[in-house]
Every structure is written in C-alpha cells, then in structure tokens.
Predict the structure.
Amino acid sequence: MSGDFMVRLGERIPAEQRLRLRRRIARLRRPAWLGTLRRLTPLGADWGLDRGTPVDRYYIEQFLQQERQAIRGAVLEVKDRTYTQRFGAGVERSEILDIDPANPLATIVADLASANTLPSGRFDCFVLTQTLQLIPDIHAAIAHAYRLLRPGGVLLATLPGLCQVERAYAASDYWRLTPASCQLLFAEAFGEEHIAIRSYGNMLAAIAFLTGMASEELSQRELEFVDRLFPIVVAVRAEKTGAVSADYVRES
Ligand SMILES: C[S@@+](CC[C@H](N)C(=O)[O-])C[C@H]1O[C@@H](n2cnc3c(N)ncnc32)[C@H](O)[C@@H]1O
C-alpha cells in the first residue's frame, strides 16, 4: 500500500474512529499485563501484615529511625508506646493518649482536637503516627499538639497519602494528606521555618501497598525511590521554638 493510499484512507475515517485506532495502536505498542493485580480486592485484609511488614510501616519506621534523637525526655504517643520503646533513648516519662476510654493502655483519655483541659508545655516529644486522618478538625488537633509540647519539643507526625480506608475506623477515616497540605497545616501552628516535610513512596510501592503486598516483596531500590507525586506516607518533623504563641489554638 502506498503512503498516498494510506493518507486517503485516513481522511475517510471519521476523527473519533481515528483517535480510537491510534489509542489501540498505542496499547499494542506498550502492552500492560495486570497479572496478580487483576483482582477487585487486596490479597489480604490487613495491609500486607499477613505477608510481612506493611509498606506504610516500612516508611513510618524509617522516619522514626531517622528522627530518633528527638524521642527523649517526656514522650507522648497515641494508642500505645510501641514507637517510644522501640526508637526512644533517654525517655524519662511515657504517656499514652487516646480518645477511646476502653483503651487499657491510655494514661490520658482525651480528644486531641478539644484537649483544652490538658496542660500546656508538658512534653519533649509527641509521636503522632497515623492518627490525624481520623480527626475531623485537623487544624485544632495540630494546634493542641503544638500546645502540649515544651519549648524545644518536637512533634513527629505521619499521615496517610495513598492508602485504603482503614477498616477498623471506616466511619471516621476522614483525610488523606499530601506534602502540600501538610506544609499548610503544620506551618500554621509551628511556623514555616520550624517544620520539615518528607514524602515517602512511589507508584510501584503504592500499587504494592494497595494490593496488600508486604515491603519485603519489593527491593530496597523500589521502596526508596521517592516520587512526590505518589506519597504513601507524609512525615512531618515540627519543632516548637516559642517563636509562635505558646498557646496558639486556631479560632474556629
Ligand atoms: C490507627 S491508630 C494510630 C496510632 C498508632 N500509634 C499507630 O501508629 O498505628 C489511631 C488511634 O487514634 C485514636 N484517636 C482517634 N481519634 C482521636 C482523637 N480525636 N484524639 C485522640 N486519639 C484519637 C484511636 O482511638 C486509635 O487509638
């Protein structure tokens, strides 16, 4: 077939049909095989725990490992003291905060978003992992986290980016955050120059995490490549310096 003939044939095909044909050729040129991923539900019901370490926990633990010098003195953590014990050094006092009065480990039962009765400036470190997404007034929660810290105290927070809704908290799992939204939220309370935001994850790690694969099923190179367009976990280190009002609580 001559080129001329092809051009004439092409002109006779309606534009919409030509576009469909072009897309089909693109698919044939770069085929994508879904394989194991061609399923409607994840491999397991618990984030990959049944196969190893969940991908988000790999990143959360990496962040806490990097920031472990801050986990010292009087330390507050939510739900239990797993990370205080695992990463802390020189911990003098460990408290556990929970809104849930049925949590037998809780030493402080309060809603972080309205913790007005808790005294200010009591903690050197607040390990606030994977909790803020469950709090409707996230601004107020961050403001109280700031207030609970002593001057020089550090908040180590992690927030979910690309991840499924948490089964146990399905009715109260409100937010997914990005590096940009964390920058906005934490700068409001701590001041822009006192926060450092890190993004963990990439497209492949996100697919593996959503599928219910464990971090052990990816190589270190695959896990540690950071693509800020695909944040699985957003981690925030925020320091209270006293430059912002110590009792800063956003007016609602
Ligand atoms: C998914 S766990 C996260 C904490 C845990 N350390 C972790 O890393 O997985 C969420 C915890 O936050 C608590 N929580 C939810 N909303 C809260 C609030 N407004 N104030 C304080 N705790 C809250 C829940 O009861 C639960 O114990």
Observations:
- The chain is about 30% helix and 20% strand.
